[in-house]
Please model this.
Amino acid sequence: MEKDFDYLSVSQLCKFIDLLHPYMDDYLYVYDFIHDYYYISPAAVKRFALPSHSFQDLVANQKKFVYPADLYSLQEDLALLINGEKEDHNMQYRWLSITGEPIWINCRGCVVKKDGKPSHMIGCINEIGVRQKADNVSGLLGITSLQSFLSERAVTISHGYLMRLGLDDFKEINEKLGSDYGDMILRRTAECISSHITSGQMLFRAVADEFLLLDTQNDDIKSAISLYKSIRQTVDEFVEANHYEAVFTISGGILSYKDMHGHSFSDIMKLSEFSLNEAKRDGKNRYYIFQQAAYDKFLRRRRLTQLLRQSVNHDFEGFEAYLQPLFEATTNSLYGAEALMRFRTEEFGMVSPMEFIPLLEETGLIMPAGKWMLHKSLALCHEIQTARPSFQISINISYIQVMKSNIINEIISAVTAHGISPDNVIIELTESGMLESDSRVTKLVSNLKDNGIRLALDDFGTGYSNFSYLNELKPDIIKIDRSFTLKALENDYEYQLLSLMSNMVHSLNLKMCIEGIETTEDLDKMNELSPDYCQGYYFGKPCPYEEFKEQYLT
Ligand code: C2E
Ligand code: CA
Ligand code: CA
Model:
């Protein structure tokens, strides 16, 4: 089919592009085959690595702005168009942005012929990867609209806040009631929020089930909070009017304009995502106001988690097993050691186990790290036993390991593999976090007993103490936590309590270990309670194996 557009010359088409381009997000172009001349919407120069919006010698210039791997197929297609073997161009390939990143584009165009010969091509280029500007489900503008609004006005905003609102548990609605129903809920939620919007406020759809409300007029966070509460009430009313078919709540993360100042758009999005997440983490159906200190803590935790994962994947580089001596009270001689995990990085130095153990537990990395620790501790025990065959090793096991891994087999096979007699091994379990009467716990306990491995109940007296554990777990050793020891040393009532506990423990034929003994006075006072084992800085701090050997084994 011959297209007859020659009443519009190439130069007229260029003028046409000049007129239209300020009102377009896409880029119009003309390519004059005869003069090898290319003209594109001037705005394209701001986005792509083009030499100019108007230039000659297309093929040579394409090397500058077309992604190298796509160059050949593009030029092949172009040759067909110029030779008249093809009339329509429709290709998806990559251009390079001004900063050199590949950007997917869709390039379409048609060839115009003059006297039956291809003369030029006109067409349009649009970015495939750009985000939606508006959302037809919620009927709201999309996030790119917020971005352009903020980039134009960010400097002048001197009031207000940004509130990210998110439905709680929206996934469940979609799963249980279908995505059409979910869309209806999103639309109605958008209406609930919109009904509160006044002048100076704008509402955008962020992702999936989240909305962004920008206020550029009201000065304080108080007005953000009262707006959040009104929105929440309207949502509650909708849920009721909808006969509780879908029961859901809404959370909000609030950033004041001051928190946004000086940040890029993507950083502002991160801060607002963090704020909403905190509101949800805090229990949902509530708001959270951004706090820099909490955000810094969050970043540190995230970075630490990254480093922990890296270490686990790099042969546990940075992990160490420290040993702290355990003393037998009656003979005042070395009984064994508790193995304590350490983590050291260049970036943070030595990190406290109080900080990194919970991260290992949250991420499940405690499974590989705990297993490494188990083997490391047993290997050290094996070395020490060549000089002291009766040496005891006490190893901490997290309840996550009990719940999520086959810890029984791991312990038993590791003990066998390292050639250690089971009665030289103590497994320490903390009662906090432990699910009472969970079958996995009772199974672990009875299996340890069957195999002759002893169990110590750690952290006794820290507030989680529950005497029913004694009956359920039937531990061999009770470890009195340092905080309890401290209280007993300072307070006579607590001391009497500890004394009663000691009697009870011994009448049940269990052993007692007192932790946190730091001075001779501490030791004298605690010895009156006739503990079986003692542990604390008085006997020695946790230290690396070499140091331990030097101090206690020579
Ligand atoms: P925990 O099992 O109660 O370990 C005893 C903690 O008290 C250790 O802290 C030890 O350094 C400290 N300590 C001992 N004697 C004294 C003393 O006289 N004075 C003072 N001020 N502190 C003393 P650490 O090494 O920081 O460990 C903290 C906790 O981290 C441990 O408490 C344990 O719950 C956990 N943890 C350590 N290593 C491991 C491990 O390999 N696996 C698991 N699951 N948890 C571990
Ligand atoms: Ca312990
Ligand atoms: Ca302890």
